[in-house]
Design brief:
Oligomer: heterodimer
Shape of chain B: globular
Order of helices and strands of chain B: HHEHEHEHEHHEHEHHEHEHEEHEHHEH
Structural class of chain A: alpha/beta
CATH superfamily of chain A: Aldolase class I
Number of strands of chain A: 9
CATH architecture of the largest domain in chain B: 3-Layer(aba) Sandwich
Number of helices of chain B: 16
CATH topology of the largest domain in chain B: Rossmann fold
Order of helices and strands of chain A: HEHEHHEHHEHEEHEHEHEHH
CATH architecture of chain A: Alpha-Beta Barrel
Largest sheet of chain B: 6 strands, mixed
Structural class of chain B: alpha/beta
Helix content of chain A: 40-55%
CATH topology of chain A: TIM Barrel
Helix content of chain B: 40-55%
Distance between the termini of chain B: 50 Å
Number of domains of chain A: 1
CATH class of the largest domain in chain B: Alpha Beta
Radius of gyration of chain A: 17 Å
Number of helices of chain A: 12
Shape of chain A: globular
């Protein structure tokens, strides 16, 4: 059982939703990102999602797009992402990488999976990889025992949800609305419907992302999903902080607040 | 994915629906001014292209001033067929944006065009044209602020608005079915040109030359000639400022590596970790780090050749065509003109070369004036 599965299992045993927090590696700089991730884990995040900065982040809105652009301009490399994963895993927290596919493709899918495993990472979230194009990743993730998290969306028809959930491992990422990250301040009512539809195809935990930025929304999502994914709200705080210490504190405070929200029921 | 599945289905139905094809054919003839002419460039051939016989396929004479209208009329009709009311587009040089704004005005659809902020500055005339036509132009301030970033923002819009919006991609790139569909709508260029060359000269050309950014005009003119094995197909990519580093060009097929960008597997200008490189070209319409996947296939199979043409060579081609033929070409098309100069000198006076003159250069007069200091 992966560290991600254990984290979801622990949350379930405590009758709450798991909190999944996203941060891009290398933003605002490498060491601050690592400190922020560790603070996130200490303050109650169950799984950390480390973003691999990519030049063309199609699923991300301006907040995350600007942050990863700055991380890349500052010279962030894939080795830095693995270092970040290693630091989080060493602290005993479940950690996955969220990456667009081209960097993995160029690195070599098998080599990427091997190095992710060696860093202690549990798996990948792949927003722009479709199951029909995923054969090399399915093989590598089996070989190295890694989780693979694909996304389902409100527009996904039943056959699509079935195909996607069939190849997922660890959890399923349910996109709460049609759109990109960081642009909504409310959770779409379609999210609950999507989670219900997805449950008919899988017994994996289902985590909901997009549109969650505060405790009330976390509580709302925790009412119907197994996990609450928060990204842009953290990145917004990192961007707004006057310095590294303030950035880490802001992330810690938001995590604690969101973690309160996930303790519903 | 659901939107792409819907689009694939609707397009498959439309392409074989006599009513749809008749409506498109009528618009191409009576609105877009097709067939466009083939003009022999006698002085240009004699003075610049080694005496070769050079024929120009005059897409610059199509309504809105470039080949882009061919594809847009097809996609906008498809939008109406799908019952959608809003069209979005990305644009580099602004020619696809102008064509989209035009077709939306004609058919009564809302239109939003994403354009890199850098490009809104260097193609200001086209920004004004789009606004006159009733479109909203959104300057894109993310990333490198050029064509690829405009495409990123158009995709971001589309995932949130697919219910009422069609994304009218302007080139033969993006996820399936776009490369195939846009190719189909642009094939008319080559179908017309092949017959026109035969009628005018009694034979097929030795080579067909076109500029390649995303590659829609090139695939459009090449496609009808693919079975004609004796006809060389030559794509001219933007070689940029001549510095030699890939990031100072937009020469994707010459200098790129296979990868994934904008939902397609194709050649991409990228670094060793798969990050898309910044690109450079004097022509905004070629300033793109990917290329339509069918061009990658034509390259890999050896059926087409791709060459890099520098900014300086393109500007020399621009000036030559202006002065010998009284035709001001777009900077994009000037890369093909420059390719014909080189090729004509290689092949000599017996050669017959067809150049796809994909657009007119009114939009580029400010850039050219600054370049030549006139």
């Amino acid at each position: 059982m992966s560290t991600v599965s254990e984290a979801f299992g622990k949350a379930r045993a405590e009758d709450r939703a798991a909190l999944v927090g996203y941060l891009p590696a290398g933003f605002p700089d490498k060491s601050t990102a690592i400190r922020a991730a560790l603070a996130m884990a200490e303050a109650g995040a169950d799984v950390i999602e480390v973003g691999l900065p990519y030049s063309d982040p199609l699923m991300d809105g301006p907040v995350i797009a600007e942050a990863v652009y700055r991380a890349l301009r500052a010279g962030t490399r894939i080795a830095d992402v693995f270092d970040t994963v290693q630091a989080i895993a060493a602290a005993g927290t479940a950690v996955v990488i969220m990456t667009y596919w081209n960097p993995v493709d160029q690195y070599g899918t098998d080599a990427f999976a091997r190095d992710l495993m060696n860093a202690g990472g549990a798996g990948l979230i792949t927003p722009d990889l479709t199951p029909e194009e995923a054969a090399p990743w399915l093989e590598a993730s089996d070989k190295y025992g890694l989780d693979r998290i694909f996304l389902v969306a409100p527009s996904s028809p039943e056959h699509r949800i079935a195909e996607i959930t069939a190849v997922c491992r660890g959890f399923v990422y349910a996109v709460s609305l049609m759109g990109i990250t960081g642009t909504r301040d409310m959770v779409n009512s379609g999210a609950a419907t999507l989670v219900r539809r997805t449950r008919e195809h899988t017994s994996l935990p289902i985590a909901v992302g997009l549109g969650v930025s505060n405790r009330e929304q976390a509580a709302e999502v925790a009412g119907f999903a197994d996990g609450v994914i928060v990204g842009s709200a953290f990145v917004r705080r990192l961007s707004a902080a006057p310095g590294p210490d303030a950035a880490v504190t802001a992330v810690r405070d938001l995590t604690a607040d969101l973690a309160q929200g996930t303790r519903r029921r | 994915m659901a939107a792409l599945e819907q689009l694939t289905k609707e397009y498959e139905a439309a392409r074989t629906d006599p009513e749809f094809t008749a409506e498109l054919a009528d618009l191409l003839t009576n609105y877009a001014a097709r067939p466009t002419l083939v003009t022999e460039a006698k002085r240009f051939g004699a003075e610049y292209a080694g005496g070769a016989r050079v024929l120009l396929k005059r897409e610059d004479l199509a309504h809105t001033g470039s080949h882009k209208i061919n594809n847009v009329l097809g996609q906008v009709l498809l939008t109406k067929r799908m019952g959608k009311t809003r069209v979005i587009a990305e644009t580099g040089a602004g020619q696809h944006g102008v064509a989209t704004a035009t077709a939306c005005a004609l058919l009564g659809l809302d239109c939003v065009v994403y354009m890199g902020e850098e490009d809104t500055r260097r193609q200001a005339l086209n920004v004004s044209r789009m606004r006159m036509l009733g479109a909203e132009v959104v300057p894109v301030k993310t990333g490198t602020r050029t064509l690829k970033d405009a495409m990123n923002d158009a995709f971001r819009d589309w995932v949130a608005t697919v219910d009422n919006t069609h994304y009218c991609i302007g080139s033969v790139g993006g996820p399936h079915p776009f490369p195939m569909m846009v190719r189909d709508f642009q094939r008319v260029i080559g179908i017309e040109a092949r017959q026109q060359v035969l009628d005018a000269t009694g034979r097929l050309p030795d080579a067909v030359v076109a500029c390649v950014g995303g590659g829609s005009n090139a695939i459009g003119v090449f496609h009808a000639f693919i079975p004609d094995e004796g006809v060389r197909l030559i794509g001219c990519e933007a070689g940029g400022d001549g510095d030699g580093r890939p990031e100072r060009t937009a020469a994707t097929l010459t200098l790129g590596l296979p990868g994934v960008l904008h939902g397609m597997r194709t050649y991409v200008l990228q670094d060793d970790e798969g990050q898309t490189l910044d690109t450079h070209s004097i022509s905004a319409g070629l300033d793109y780090p990917g290329v339509g996947p069918e061009h990658s296939w034509l390259k890999d199979t050896g059926r087409a050749e791709y060459r890099s043409v520098s900014d300086a060579e393109a500007m020399a081609g621009f000036a030559a065509l202006c002065k010998t033929e009284g035709i001001i070409p777009a900077l994009e098309s000037s890369h093909a003109v420059a390719g014909a100069i080189t090729l004509g000198r290689e092949l000599g006076p017996d050669a017959l070369i067809l150049v796809n003159l994909s657009g007119r250069g009114d939009k580029d007069v400010a850039t050219a004036s600054a370049y030549f200091g006139v």
